[in-house]
Design brief:
995 residues, mainly alpha, 59% helix, 37 helices, rod-shaped
């Protein structure tokens, strides 16, 4: 960086002592300044004065005040080097006296300027030097470059004023000074006096003289008519007269001379206007102290603080130069406050115009702005406030143009300028809000943090702009890749870009902005979060089904949100509220919830289809034992396959929440399988479906010769009743014994597959990217709960149904209609055993071995129940004598032997367990009638108490046969072919002999 100050010791100055020879026209200001759209906030002139006109006028004022500051007569100064080629100028014969202490003050190269220290500017040599060689610049090759020896000479060189012009002005000032006996220079109107003192002969040609005269007339017009210190009265004759003179003179130059009539008229009008009082007690003439003319002239003087050969450097002699410049305040009406404001603007404008690289200039402007802030708090001058507001607005506007979209303004090449720009922008905003704004004064000042509010605005504005650009970029990227396989959705691309933008913001910009806003990064990510929220919520509202694109976008959104929140939390660690306010600005995207809802919708669709499939296929299922080798239904094979495929499809979904959503899927599948199990057993009946209704109690008609006749009739009636009870089971082949066995196999197979499915789910979870150890280590949460219980219950019900159907329905003709009907000795159990054995063979071949024992056990239980039902509720067609007891016991032993099968059948202990009731009842058939009656009386009295003494109550049928139970004893008596028993029943209960 070219440093701001250059050593002006002899032989090292970049300024030359003299301009090129014979140059009489003012040189243009440096051309290396870049063009800038910044208009001067100090005000625009209504006159046609150019910058060159203003510069020459400013120089006139400077020379005037500096030459008369000692109150001595004005004299010329020999401030030119004898080697200078300008010694041949027209003024060379004039006597130059070096006795003016102001202009002839010797310049010394100070080690460090007070002003530089105050503004925080660097000293010479602290940074890289200029690329120019010492002594370079206009005219350096024309003569030996000399270091200026006086402030006046330095100012002339800095303002590019030709020596001839300087000499001419000095001569005029010398003549003017001769007439200022006892008066100060501010008591005269300088342009008027110059017009009076200089004639055409003082100029090289008529053209130069005309231009000079017009400039001075325009200055009079600007200072007295267009921008007067004291406002003009519209009826003022002098102003109208002056306007006419100036306009006429601009068309045709007037002759000037002391006794010239036109000059006298001009002087009269000018002095009439310039002498008007502004309320002060001084005798000053007001011709250059009206705003904005005075500010523009002063701006020209302040610009001379910058080296003409290095626009970013302030001259080393700035303290001495500034001391002389301030002497112009008496003519220009400048005070310290206006000086501070103008100098702030000059420094800032120079930073902008020189490429915005020299940060020392910006920091100096910011430092000077601190003085402006102090001034703003101490004055209520409306004119000053207007200029202050305009200047600060211009600075703030320039800064905000860059800061409201700082992502476009700053990059790695110029990021070092950001802090300075933020600083001066915030400083300007604070003064505007706190000292200019009336609204702020009405509020409690403590409630407004200007700096924080501005930074907040910059962050949000810039990031919204950056987000919009990323959005457009993502859209373009999507269009460019639409022909490629599996192109990324726009919002997924955008989420990635926004995440990168947030990280860049945190690393590059937030550390700078945190100086003014403690939660800079938090505000940034909250803004990005809100921008993306608008897009993602609109996207979520439009999703109808789970698609790969939808999942990809939602996962990207979820990751982005987690990253943004993490940055916000980290940024707010030291904040008072822990970042709660920022987090409240970031309502969740609910991306995970959206994914969950989509997956739940996907699950519901699959489950609805599965349930429809179950209904449809179970209606068509024929339960064919030959459908496959395992002997279970084809519908079971299919439903297990569908469930397996559903689980595979679920775990292939590109979602991050498999473990969380798996319970929903498992619960749904569990219900479907439970529904299948319930439907598979429905309509198959149960134990009670097949057990016949017990006939009413009767007593035996002993010794009747017609006994066989009515027994046959009774047999026919009972058969019809039983057939009607199980009519629903007939005529439907799907409820045959082989088909019921297939149903049992099917439920057993489904129950077995539950363990396989659960293990497969654990394997899926282990391979799942989002699963944690606890997700598959906790086995309880990954089990089917309803289906296993439904299958166990279904197998139990179907097993009993098979057993009791065989015994009481399919074999009723040999059990209920045949066993012990008529004479027990001629209707024994052998036919029943043969049919049972045949059915047991069918079951052994059909039923899965794991449930075979259960069904055979149930058949044995049903056979024992049937055997007891024949003995205790077989109806009037059966009667037993004591001698028949041995036949009954032998038959029952044969029944048990069938199931024992010489040790190849049921275990002996199981047979003993389920035959215990029969074994307990059979001894009653050996007992004589008297003993039975006596036992019946005793048990009944014990059961019913003293109320049974007068008359024995008829005990109800419980169906729980027991040798000590009254109803069991009563039934043995009812079927006893014995006179004593018959009489007891007739007398006690008046039981009939037939139904």
């Amino acid at each position: 960086m070219a440093h701001l100050f250059r050593d002006l010791s002899l032989g090292h100055s970049k300024r030359e002592s003299t301009p090129p020879p014979l140059q009489t026209k003012p040189q243009p200001m440096p051309t290396k300044l870049t063009s800038t759209s910044l208009q001067s906030p100090l005000g625009q002139l209504a006159s046609q004065l150019t910058d060159s006109d203003l510069r020459l006028t400013a120089y006139d004022v400077f020379l005037a005040v500096c030459r008369t500051s000692s109150s001595k007569p004005l004299s010329t100064s020999s401030s030119f080097n004898s080697d200078s080629p300008s010694h041949n100028s027209p003024s060379q014969n004039h006597n130059h006296s070096p006795n003016s202490p102001a202009l002839q003050r010797s310049l010394t190269s100070a080690a460090a300027s007070k002003m530089k220290k105050a503004l925080g500017l660097k000293s010479p040599g602290s940074s890289s030097g200029s690329k120019k060689s010492p002594g370079s610049g206009p005219g350096s090759g024309q003569g030996k470059s000399k270091r200026p020896t006086t402030v006046g000479e330095l100012m002339r060189i800095q303002m590019r004023v030709p020596e001839t012009v300087d000499s001419r002005v000095r001569r005029a000032l010398l003549r003017i000074g001769g007439g200022l006996v006892g008066r100060r220079i501010e008591s005269v109107v300088l342009p008027l006096e110059l017009l009076q003192q200089l004639k055409q002969s003082d100029f090289t040609d008529q053209q130069e003289y005309d231009a000079w005269q017009k400039r001075n007339l325009k200055v009079l017009e600007a200072g007295l008519l267009l921008h007067p210190r004291v406002p003009l009265d519209k009826s003022n004759n002098a102003s109208q007269r002056l306007r006419q003179i100036i306009h006429a003179a601009l068309d045709r130059p007037i002759e000037t001379g002391k006794n010239n009539e036109s000059m006298q008229v001009l002087r009269s009008a000018v002095m009439s206007l310039a002498s008007r009082s502004d309320g002060s007690l001084s005798d000053s003439c007001h011709w250059a102290d009206g705003i904005p003319l005075n500010l523009r002239l002063y701006e020209m003087l302040l610009e001379t603080c910058f080296d003409i050969n290095d626009e970013t450097s302030i001259v080393e002699e700035v303290d001495e130069l500034m001391e002389q410049i301030k002497k112009t305040w008496v003519i220009l009406g400048i005070n310290q406050m206006l000086h501070n404001l103008c100098f702030t603007w000059v420094l800032f404008h120079r930073f902008v115009a020189t490429g915005q690289d020299e940060m020392d200039l910006l920091y100096a402007a910011d430092s000077q702005l601190a003085e402006v802030a102090k001034d703003a708090k101490t004055t209520k001058d409306p004119d000053y406030s207007k200029i202050l507001s305009s200047t600060l607005s211009s600075i703030l506007g320039w800064a905000e143009k860059r800061l409201l979209a700082y992502h476009d303004t700053f990059d790695s090449g110029n990021i070092y300028t950001m802090q300075g720009i933020v600083s001066i922008g915030v400083s300007a905003a604070k003064i505007l809000v706190e000292d200019v704004s009336t609204e702020y004064r009405r509020k409690r000042k403590g409630t407004v943090d200007v700096a924080r509010n501005r930074i907040d605005t910059y962050i949000r504005s810039s990031l919204r702009t950056a987000f919009a650009q990323r959005m457009e970029k993502a859209d373009s990227s999507r269009r460019a890749s639409k022909n490629q396989p599996n192109p990324l959705p726009v919002l997924a691309i955008l989420a990635k870009d926004v995440g990168e933008l947030a990280v860049h913001e945190k690393q590059v910009f937030s550390p700078i902005l945190k100086g003014w806003h403690p939660l800079a990064a938090g505000v940034a990510v909250a803004t990005l979060h809100a921008c993306y929220a608008n897009e993602i919520k609109q996207f979520i509202s439009g999703i109808m089904e789970l698609t790969p694109d939808a999942v990809q976008v939602l996962r990207a959104a979820d990751k982005l949100e987690k990253d943004l929140v993490q940055i916000a939390v980290e940024d707010a660690v030291d904040s008072d509220d822990g970042g709660k306010a920022i987090i409240r600005e970031m309502p969740p995207y609910e991306a995970e919830a959206a994914i969950a809802n989509l997956v739940k919708g996907w699950i519901k669709t699959r489950l609805d289809r599965l349930k429809e499939w179950v209904d449809r296929n179970l209606q068509q299922e024929v339960w064919n034992p030959q459908a496959n080798q395992e002997g279970y239904a084809t519908s079971a094979v299919e439903i297990l396959r569908i469930i397996d495929e559903t689980l595979d499809a679920f775990f292939q979904l590109p979602i991050p929440t498999h473990p969380a959503l798996l319970p929903d899927l498992m619960a749904g599948l569990d219900k479907c399988l439970q529904y299948y199990a319930i439907k598979a057993k429905s309509g198959c009946g149960s134990r009670n479906t097949y057990v016949p209704t017990m006939p009413a109690l009767t007593r035996c008609e002993t010794g009747s010769k017609f006994q066989g006749v009515w027994r046959k009739k009774e047999k026919s009636q009972n058969s019809q009743k039983r057939n009607s009870q199980v009519a629903t089971m007939n005529g439907d082949n799907s409820f045959g014994i082989p088909q019921l066995c297939v149903r049992i196999n099917t439920l057993h197979r489904i129950r077995s597959e539950m363990d396989v499915l659960e293990k497969r789910i654990i394997t899926h979870l282990r391979n799942c990217e989002s699963a944690h150890v606890e997700d598959f280590s906790n086995g309880l949460s990954k089990k089917f709960e309803l289906t296993p219980a439904a299958c166990v219950e279904g197998v139990q019900q179907l097993s009993e149904a098979v057993a009791y159907k065989i015994v009481f329905h399919d074999l009723s003709y040999v059990l209920w209609d045949g066993l012990y009907v008529g004479e027990p000795s001629s209707s024994r159990i052998d036919p029943l055993l043969q049919e049972l054995e045949r059915n047991l063979l069918i079951i052994s071949e059909t039923v899965h071995e794991r449930v075979r024992t259960r069904i055979i056990t149930d058949i044995m239980k049903a056979s024992c129940d049937g055997f007891l039902l024949v003995l205790l509720a077989g109806g009037p067609s059966r009667a037993f004598s004591r001698q028949d007891s041995q036949i009954i016991e032998d038959d029952f032993k044969a029944l048990k032997d069938l199931f024992w099968a010489n040790g190849d059948g049921l275990p002996a202990d199981l047979i003993d367990k389920f035959s215990a009731t029969v074994r307990g009842v059979l001894p009653l058939f050996r007992t004589d009638a008297e003993s039975l009656i006596e036992r019946f009386r005793r048990v009944t009295l014990e059961t019913y108490g003293s109320s049974a003494r007068s008359r024995l109550p008829l005990p109800p049928t419980s169906g729980q046969w027991n040798p000590t139970e009254p109803n069991t004893l009563l039934r043995v008596l009812c079927y006893r072919n014995d006179e004593t028993a018959s009489k007891f029943l007739k007398k006690t209960y008046n039981l009939p002999k037939k139904l």
